[in-house]
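Example 3.2
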Amino acid sequence: MIWYLLGILIGVMVVVLTSLAIRTGLMIRKSLKESRIPVKTFPAQIIRRRTEKEKTPDGQNQTVCMTTFRSSDGTVCELKVSQDFYSAFREGTYGELTCQGTAFLAFLPQQMPEAAQEEPEARQMPADPVCPADDFDPALFARRYPEQERSEQTPMC
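Structure, written as C-alpha coordinates:
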Protein backbone atom coordinates (compact mmCIF):
# COMPACT_ATOMS: atom_id res chain seq x y z
CA MET A 1 0.00 0.00 0.00
CA ILE A 2 2.79 2.42 0.91
CA TRP A 3 4.58 1.69 -2.38
CA TYR A 4 1.39 2.45 -4.25
CA LEU A 5 1.02 5.85 -2.54
CA LEU A 6 4.71 6.59 -3.05
CA GLY A 7 4.32 5.80 -6.77
CA ILE A 8 1.36 8.19 -7.04
CA LEU A 9 3.28 10.91 -5.19
CA ILE A 10 6.29 10.54 -7.48
CA GLY A 11 3.99 10.60 -10.56
CA VAL A 12 2.34 13.83 -9.38
CA MET A 13 5.74 15.41 -8.71
CA VAL A 14 6.95 14.47 -12.21
CA VAL A 15 3.86 16.05 -13.80
CA VAL A 16 4.20 19.24 -11.74
CA LEU A 17 7.93 19.60 -12.44
CA THR A 18 7.41 18.92 -16.16
CA SER A 19 4.71 21.58 -16.43
CA LEU A 20 6.92 24.09 -14.58
CA ALA A 21 9.82 23.33 -16.90
CA ILE A 22 7.63 23.78 -19.99
CA ARG A 23 6.17 27.05 -18.69
CA THR A 24 9.65 28.38 -17.84
CA GLY A 25 10.94 27.36 -21.26
CA LEU A 26 8.07 29.19 -22.99
CA MET A 27 8.72 32.32 -20.94
CA ILE A 28 12.43 32.25 -21.81
CA ARG A 29 11.62 31.69 -25.49
CA LYS A 30 9.23 34.66 -25.54
CA SER A 31 11.79 36.84 -23.76
CA LEU A 32 14.52 35.92 -26.23
CA LYS A 33 12.20 36.52 -29.18
CA GLU A 34 11.19 39.95 -27.83
CA SER A 35 14.80 40.94 -27.13
CA ARG A 36 15.64 40.56 -30.84
CA ILE A 37 12.92 43.04 -31.87
CA PRO A 38 14.24 46.59 -32.26
CA VAL A 39 13.16 49.29 -29.80
CA LYS A 40 10.91 51.83 -31.54
CA THR A 41 9.91 55.32 -30.45
CA PHE A 42 7.14 57.16 -32.25
CA PRO A 43 4.39 59.75 -31.61
CA ALA A 44 1.19 58.16 -30.29
CA GLN A 45 -2.01 58.96 -28.46
CA ILE A 46 -3.77 56.93 -25.76
CA ILE A 47 -7.16 56.00 -27.15
CA ARG A 48 -8.38 53.37 -24.66
CA ARG A 49 -7.53 52.01 -21.21
CA ARG A 50 -8.90 48.91 -19.56
CA THR A 51 -8.16 46.43 -16.80
CA GLU A 52 -8.59 42.69 -16.58
CA LYS A 53 -8.54 40.31 -13.65
CA GLU A 54 -6.46 37.19 -14.08
CA LYS A 55 -5.07 34.46 -11.89
CA THR A 56 -1.34 34.05 -11.39
CA PRO A 57 0.19 30.55 -11.54
CA ASP A 58 0.04 30.38 -7.73
CA GLY A 59 -3.73 31.11 -7.74
CA GLN A 60 -3.64 34.76 -6.65
CA ASN A 61 -5.84 37.37 -8.35
CA GLN A 62 -3.95 40.02 -10.34
CA THR A 63 -5.13 43.16 -12.13
CA VAL A 64 -3.65 43.57 -15.60
CA CYS A 65 -3.70 47.09 -17.06
CA MET A 66 -3.90 47.47 -20.84
CA THR A 67 -3.57 50.71 -22.81
CA THR A 68 -4.36 51.11 -26.50
CA PHE A 69 -2.25 53.59 -28.45
CA ARG A 70 -2.75 55.03 -31.92
CA SER A 71 0.33 56.23 -33.77
CA SER A 72 0.30 59.37 -35.89
CA ASP A 73 -0.12 57.22 -39.03
CA GLY A 74 -3.23 55.51 -37.57
CA THR A 75 -1.72 52.17 -36.50
CA VAL A 76 -3.36 50.83 -33.33
CA CYS A 77 -1.41 48.85 -30.73
CA GLU A 78 -2.52 47.53 -27.32
CA LEU A 79 0.18 47.09 -24.68
CA LYS A 80 0.28 45.80 -21.11
CA VAL A 81 1.35 48.65 -18.77
CA SER A 82 2.09 49.05 -15.07
CA GLN A 83 -0.62 50.18 -12.66
CA ASP A 84 1.40 53.35 -12.00
CA PHE A 85 1.38 54.24 -15.70
CA TYR A 86 -2.29 53.31 -16.01
CA SER A 87 -3.30 55.68 -13.23
CA ALA A 88 -0.99 58.52 -14.37
CA PHE A 89 -2.38 59.03 -17.89
CA ARG A 90 -5.87 59.27 -19.33
CA GLU A 91 -7.40 58.69 -22.73
CA GLY A 92 -6.50 61.42 -25.21
CA THR A 93 -2.98 61.98 -23.84
CA TYR A 94 -0.47 62.48 -26.65
CA GLY A 95 3.26 61.74 -26.45
CA GLU A 96 6.24 59.66 -27.53
CA LEU A 97 5.69 55.90 -27.09
CA THR A 98 8.66 53.56 -26.81
CA CYS A 99 8.00 49.83 -27.19
CA GLN A 100 9.85 46.69 -28.14
CA GLY A 101 7.45 44.35 -29.91
CA THR A 102 4.62 43.80 -27.44
CA ALA A 103 6.62 45.15 -24.49
CA PHE A 104 5.77 48.67 -23.27
CA LEU A 105 8.93 50.57 -22.31
CA ALA A 106 8.03 54.26 -21.88
CA PHE A 107 5.62 57.05 -22.74
CA LEU A 108 6.62 60.71 -22.53
CA PRO A 109 3.63 63.06 -22.72
CA GLN A 110 3.98 66.01 -25.09
CA GLN A 111 1.94 68.82 -26.56
CA MET A 112 -0.06 67.48 -29.50
CA PRO A 113 1.00 69.06 -32.80
CA GLU A 114 -1.82 70.80 -34.67
CA ALA A 115 -1.50 68.43 -37.64
CA ALA A 116 -1.98 65.43 -35.33
CA GLN A 117 -5.15 66.77 -33.72
CA GLU A 118 -7.24 65.42 -36.57
CA GLU A 119 -8.38 61.85 -35.90
CA PRO A 120 -6.53 59.53 -38.29
CA GLU A 121 -8.41 56.47 -39.49
CA ALA A 122 -7.19 53.15 -38.19
CA ARG A 123 -5.41 51.39 -41.01
CA GLN A 124 -3.76 48.19 -41.98
CA MET A 125 -0.38 47.32 -40.45
CA PRO A 126 2.60 48.67 -42.40
CA ALA A 127 5.13 46.26 -43.93
CA ASP A 128 7.52 47.07 -41.06
CA PRO A 129 5.05 46.87 -38.15
CA VAL A 130 5.31 48.94 -35.01
CA CYS A 131 4.10 45.91 -33.10
CA PRO A 132 3.93 42.34 -34.43
CA ALA A 133 0.40 41.16 -35.17
CA ASP A 134 1.22 37.46 -35.44
CA ASP A 135 -1.22 36.50 -32.70
CA PHE A 136 -3.98 38.99 -33.57
CA ASP A 137 -7.38 37.37 -33.07
CA PRO A 138 -10.20 39.34 -34.80
CA ALA A 139 -12.88 37.48 -32.80
CA LEU A 140 -11.23 38.42 -29.49
CA PHE A 141 -10.89 42.04 -30.64
CA ALA A 142 -14.59 42.12 -31.59
CA ARG A 143 -15.60 40.77 -28.16
CA ARG A 144 -13.47 43.38 -26.36
CA TYR A 145 -14.49 46.31 -28.57
CA PRO A 146 -17.92 45.51 -29.99
CA GLU A 147 -18.72 49.16 -30.78
CA GLN A 148 -15.81 49.47 -33.21
CA GLU A 149 -16.00 48.03 -36.70
CA ARG A 150 -12.55 47.12 -37.93
CA SER A 151 -11.16 44.89 -40.62
CA GLU A 152 -9.35 41.68 -39.76
CA GLN A 153 -6.06 43.45 -40.48
CA THR A 154 -6.44 45.80 -37.50
CA PRO A 155 -3.32 45.12 -35.42
CA MET A 156 -3.30 44.29 -31.77
CA CYS A 157 -0.07 43.61 -29.93
